[in-house]
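Model it.
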Amino acid sequence: MTATLPKRPVKPARPSVVEYLAEAIFSGRYQPGDFVPKEIDLCEQFAINRSAVRSDLRQLVDVGIIARISGHGSKVRDYEEWNILDPSVTEWMTRYASPNPRIQREILAFRLDVEPYVAMTAARRAKALDLVAIEEALEGMSRHLHAESAEEKQRYSDHDVAFHVAIFKASHNIVWAQLSHILRPSIHLLVETSNDSTADPEASFERHRLVMEAIRARRPREAFLAAREVLQGTAEALGIEPGDGTLGSWLEVAPTATP
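Modeled.
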């Protein structure tokens, strides 16, 4: 009979200071310019040693979210200093940033600057397989448009995110295509929140459909304007004013030349 080796006891994970502070910062409890609790206070609160606290704080320092100020503690930096494309930051953003309208506004402003151009480029460069991916995502949205359960609503949002990612890939620009993976959590943050709060899901779906039709018809200007309408609808659903400085809010694209 084979002897059974005794199982090693599973060592419990220590409390995560970095997750606690990330949630507090991204949800807006600590604003840029605020000091987070001091090391000694975090040691007492989490019952861990100072080196563990410093290790967790270092993670936030490395991605630009806090700055260590000698003799004073750790201070939340301005949003412009955050490494917003770092995978850890985008993950925290997805999990914790929903209550923070300023972060939502910054993401939306960036998307207004970028996505109309991506859609315009996709209208020029999309191949058959790209169009299939965009259409399949839109069909998935259609199937779950009137979802009532939380699971069905999640599927609608997942297809919505897939729709936007497919357009990035259809640009056939390696930077945009790679960026779509990095941006996916931030896109998901706005998509899920706006889909939950929109007063007219049919109108939102129709705006997405018009983007697809413009790309399929090879009409770059219409794709640009349609993508801008999608994001303005997102802003309205979230109750966010995207601001006057975004390129997508004022730039007009020349009409497509007639062949």
